[in-house]
Predict the 3D structure of the following.
Amino acid sequence: MAAQHVADRRDIDFVLFDQFHAESLTEHAMYADFNRKTFDMVISEARKFALKELLPTYATGDRQGVQFDRGTVTPPECFRRPFDLFCQGEWLALSEEPELGGQGLPFIISHAAGEYLIGTNFAFSSYAMLGHGAGKMIEHYGTEEQKKLFIKKLYSGTWTGTMLLTEPDAGSDVGALTTSARRNDDGTWSLYGTKAFITSGDHDLTENIIHPVLARIEGAPAGTKGISIFLVPKIWVNEDGSLGEPNDIVCTGIEEKMGLHGSATCSMALGSKGACRGLLLGEENKGMRIMFTMMNEARLGVGIQAFSHASAAYLLALEYARTRKQGRAIEEALDPTAPSVPIIDHPDVRRMLLEMKCCVDGMRSFAYYIALLMDHHRVSDAPDVQELSDDLVGLLTPVLKAYNGIKGYEVCIKAIQVFGGAGYLRDYTVEQIARDCKIASIYEGTDGIQAMDLLARKLGMKKGQVFMELLNRMNRTIEDAAGLAATQPLTDNASMAVNRLGDCAMAMGQTLLGGNLRTAFAHSLPFLEVMGDAVMAWMLLWRAATAARKLETGAPKKEIPYLNGQIKGAEFFFANLLPVTFGKMDALMALGDAAVTMEDKGFGG
């Protein structure tokens, strides 16, 4: 797999600078030191680093896997040199303030660089990424002493971090955790408990690992209201920043997974010797609110991870279809003397490739749009703009996470289908990409949990005003597309998608408010999916209108096929895939209750 088979640089540039005008961010004081040339250089360097250092470790790391021996966790040997170079290149905190060890880049540029850094080998990059999330929590909620001790170490990758939420018997029901914390006389806390499914829970790539741990202080209320969060270093950090003694937190085993074999997924024991110490982060009993800072960042990261895998799978399938000759052209199928043609000449293969392209293009624009909203929040001086940008990010985050996870995996499976029998072999990369991608629908909250969050918390934000603003933004794109000859024919169906999405939202809200909770939540994921489909239609129409305008104003000859591809992709989506969405909307509006009214024994077994 080569770097050009990870992410389409031409498409990245189109989204950044044509669709979303990322260069205009440099008009704001925060990004005034940057320009288009700087942005191009960062993305090019990320691509170069990914090609040279990360891609060679992808298949090798999968085959070597993680080793566990008497409490010691050893990542694939091939990860060591790239990890050191990853930290030296300061790739971990591209969007953070320079005084904290970052580069101060816009989020949208960081996302673009991340396509290569994540898409080439997520098992590798996951060792560093969670450290950034831990650092962000400390930046927002830590004491000055905690910030001084931990942030730069985490943002630089000198130390890594984790998220210790899940427990063997609690799973996604975090409020049922049993890990406990007891106050010590010196201001530290003693912790006792076990955690499971901890990504990068232990390894020897860095000298220390900082574990944010959810636990209940003895005597605190039951459920999520009584949860606090603690910073538990693998090696205790003294007040002067030096390292002390090993802490009483150990890995008791690693999981053997379907994919991401190079990533250490650990079971962790805290306080088995009665000597696990931690520092309270933020206020007591506010742990879940604090942890959501990290979880939301992680959910956005998963959305990027999923479409980065899809992008790589699609580009590999496209290259294979262009070079693999098999069968005769459909018009010459009965002529045994006719030459074999590349399989991209076969109509069904072309259909699969275009479906994959629509998904990848839409997911890229979707992820970058959320990053752009984050940048608008950062650069704006207007509180109302900041608030609305933040609210839209909150509304769209569960959709991005779950929808990209679903569609990303579908693209990976379709890529295997394009390869045929060859795609099922380990000789080709697509089977590993599919295995690695599947987790995106599971961790950081399954698809169903994201859908429940959307329905119960996000849809009704500000009495539905945030959702209505999203529909208004979709309609503004439709109005723009209606003025262009190439995209005007698509606008009627686009308007229908927006209107019907609003109808579905109202039906879901009324069902929920009417007390029919089980039926409402049985349809929460289908609702999330049709909302994702509508966002995809929006993004693809936006792309097509952008391309049409460039064609109308005289695009260079070499650009014409790419720009026409944007329009054809939108035409395909609206003619072939959006009608399926309308069918799903019909089913959603019917609000059938069979799933929740059938007796348990009716499931059989």
